[in-house]
Amino acid sequence: MLRSARLPAGATERGSAVVDFVLVGALVSLVFMAVIQLALVLHVRNTLIDAAATGARYGTLADRSPEDGIRRTSELIHASLGAEYAGDITSAEQTAGDARLLEITVRAPLPVIGLIGPDGGIEVAGHAAWR
């Protein structure tokens, strides 16, 4: 007669803790990197909005023109994010009620992996009223 060999308790689970650790560690790392990337996207967006609004305010000063606002916006973006984010900046005059507004629009790459991403993924605008 053949007797079945009995394995000690827990012998079939041997080595599974290593696999669990690797799988959970990889999942936690992936979630952590996604949160960091989201924070980077929000940082880029907020920086672009601030630069556009500052450029619009600068362009509406008494001795300045919309081109000066575009140039100021470009300088701010170039100093904070880099030249590739300051490539597509436009200005337009708008009206809201009886107020004249200067709108500075910035189109920049959407950072997908680090700061690398497709062009035109983010479009933000800043407004200022002429006095």
TrEMBL record:
Record key words, sorted: Membrane, Transmembrane, Transmembrane helix
Transmembrane segments: 21-42
TadE-like domain boundaries: 15-57
The protein's name: Pilus assembly protein
Keyword check for Membrane: yes
Annotated source species: Arthrobacter zhangbolii
Superkingdom per UniProt: Bacteria
